[in-house]
Specification:
The protein has strands at residues 4-9, 12-17, 27-35, 39-44, 49-53, 62-69, 72-77, 87-94, 102-107, 110-116, 122-128, 137-138, 148-153, 156-162, 168-173, 182-185, 193-195, 202-207, 213-218, 227-228, 238-240, 247-252, 258-263, 272-275, 283-288, 291-297, 303-308, 317-320, 329-334, 337-343, 349-354. With 357 residues, the chain is mostly beta strands. The chain folds into two domains: 4-77, Sandwich (Immunoglobulin-like), CATH 2.60.40; 87-354, Fucose-specific lectin (Neuraminidase). The strands form eight sheets. A four-stranded antiparallel sheet has the order 4-3-6-7, with no helix packed on it. Strands 8-31-30-29 form a four-stranded antiparallel sheet, with no helix packed on it. A four-stranded antiparallel sheet has the order 9-10-11-12, with no helix packed on it. A hairpin with a 6-residue loop joins strand 21 (238-240) and strand 22 (247-252).
Amino acid sequence: MLDASAVEGDKTVTVSWLPARSCHAPIDSYTIVGQPGNLTQVLPATATSASFNGLTNGSAYTFTVTVKNAAGQDSASTGPVVPGTPWAMRESLGLGAASGPSVASWSASRMDVFYTGSDSQLYHQYSDAGAAWSAPEPLGGILTSAPAAVSWGPNRIDIFARGADQQLWHMYWGGTHWGPWEPLGGILSSAPAAASWSADRLDIFASGSDSQLWHMCWTGNGWRTWEPLGGVLTSSPTVAAWSTNRLDIFARGADNSAWHRWWTGNAWGGWALVGGTLDSAPAVSTWGPNRLDLFALTTSGSIQHLSGNGYTWSPWQSLGGGRWLADPAAIARQLGTVDIFGLGSESATWHVAYKPV
């Protein structure tokens, strides 16, 4: 079956597809048609992408790829894509991912990305001071979910994931070496989420076998037991900490909308509706008090975004971004910019930088 995706730029869209397979006759050609405008390219059997230039920024386009051979033809269409969306940069980290990514940062110049590979173990890549991304580093484990990563200080990263036994597993980077995987219990029905509001403090969230939100934490001298926090989750949760004793947790509910719960230092707020129609788990980032940016996939696989202060929210805005295939991840290393990571076609991990208004 043919599959097609599209990525936008300034007045341009690049359409990509995996090579078609045929058991009988060889592939003759690919025809790519963009609408509106009946924009057409006919390319040879070796082609896997086509670029359309001179498009109108802000206008939605849809592209159909048709492959032909002596036995017939097959077609696939992209979702709507809008040239000129506000990406500060876009890059691929390479192939090999089998899950959505997670990202952690211990400084404004450092990002560490983690994902589950096709062999079910954890993989790690990093970029420091704008340098090229490192080669994938295998870190073992048998993961049955995307990982969650968080840093509470320089040269410290904690990683969490669901294992083959459905419980939570944990490993860490301590500055000189990776610690071993350790089990932390629970019965998870989703990937975990992790946040830290201060040194040596970790808060972990996941959906349990009963589809409600569960929470456990590390307080500096030991792990607290899991506690239930209610809700009916249909996605993995996501969490951000904008200051000491503040946590904001989001998840998709049974109505496919985003829902929000928060910790203020002495009490949990009740579940509150944020709204929207989500086709993935949400991803949240914060660059300071009273600022939260929420991202999720649309039904066409593109990125949508809203922002707020934890109590009031902007409308959801479509950002395009091509077609992503798994839950995104987001982090704000500095005021005014959010780095977003996601899984694209051909098992590639993608990174885009976005400057919210």
